Amino acid sequence: MKNPLLAAVAAPLLGCLAGTAAAHAASDDALAVLQQQVRALGRQVAQQHAEIDALRARVVQLQMGQRGKGYPGDPLGAQLLRGEPVAGVPVQPATAPGAIVLAQAQAPSDAALPTLGTTHEAPAGEVRQSRTEVAAQGHAPLFHRRLTLTAGWSDSYYDRRELALSGFLALDAIFLGNISIAQTKAHIDTFDLAAQYGIGDDLTLNIDLPYVLRNSRFLSAGQNASSSAISQSTVSSDAIGDVNFGFDYRLVREHGRVPDVVASLKVTAPTGTSPFGIAVYQPDAQNTNLQVPQRLPTGNGVWSINPSVSFLTSSDPLVLFGSLGYLYNVTRSVGNIDPASINSPGRVKLGDGVQIGGGFALVLNDRASVSTSLTSLIARSTRVELPGQGWQTVAGSASTNVSLGFGVNYALSDHLTLSAMLQAGLTPDAPNYALSIRFPYRF
Description:
By secondary structure, the chain is α+β, with helices and mostly antiparallel strands. It has helices spanning 4-65, 75-81, 102-106, 131-136, and strands spanning 147-170, 174-199, 203-221, 230-240, 244-252, 260-268, 280-281, 292-293, 304-315, 318-329, 332-334, 346-349, 353-363, 368-379, 383-385, 391-393, 399-411, 417-425, 433-442. 18% of the residues lie in helices and 44% in strands. The strands form three sheets. Strands 1-2-3-5-6-9-10-13-14-17-18-19 form a twelve-stranded antiparallel beta barrel. Strands 11-12-15-16 form a four-stranded antiparallel beta sheet, with no helix packed on it. β9 (304-315) and β10 (318-329) form a beta hairpin. The longest helix has 62 residues, at 4-65. 21% of the residues are buried.
């Protein structure tokens, strides 16, 4: 028989014990939930840190890497920019269960972050290029690009007039004698395909294959001592031009106030039609003043070596550039130097020259920039050596070629750019104008 008093005392104790057990079980469940949330938050924080590092590397790439200044001082940014694996930073971060991904909150689910070391596919209508690259792409090699192919066209126009007087002045006002007036109008169109291949971070190899079309119209007055009688003749030629190849090597990368310094070497081979040995004839039997060549040359006819050094520094939105070079022409033996002679062998030495240039580019936005440049080539006189005679200087062969250029660069896409340049001749030896359009495609 149960004791009523014992039952009355045991009932509350049993209820208290049951409540304590239930409380402990609830506490364990809450602790497990909290631990799971902490782990989820830890994965979320790690994910967001990885995304922040990737975004930081993207900013570094846009601001510094794309023009080839070199990697930044930040070691992590440098590793990410080179595409090297970094501990704790996944190349393509995976979404953790229950984590809130920062990129998903800022962009559509299919807009993944760019993978370092690969090409970023911009949304339609958007071109993401470094402002510095847009400005500098027409003035310096892009060492960070593995391969660049460029298709181009250029047109140079020359208009030369000459007045020859054979006689004397009477009473310091009246000319007695013969007057010969000559004019030459010439167009030189060049279509070329160039390739630039990067080896490492500071060396590029390049080659340029030109095809040249020339058209010249020769006019001469003074037939039978009459300035009103004019004769004219047109000569056209087209052939491959002089192929040139070489390399660019970056000596110094831009940092602080120190500019990029690039050393270049270009070698030109005489693959075009040589100007030596081209015979001349008289197209108008009544005008002995007019002598024209049977064909027009498309090359210089000699090997040439052109070492140079260039400088480039940027201060957004301005990019300053300059260059200094020397053009050395190799002496060549030719079978016929004098166009009026059938057989006149000898040696020829085209005048060497000094090249100086410089200018600036102004960045308008991430797509476009405009530039202004001044280029000059000061060449010595050409010399020839005939058998049994010493070297003789060709009168009037020294030249000073100075041109002022205005250019525009426009990025059509992440890979394709339109570069246009118009140059105006400032000296009689320079073309009246030269217009060039180029389309570099960077892989």
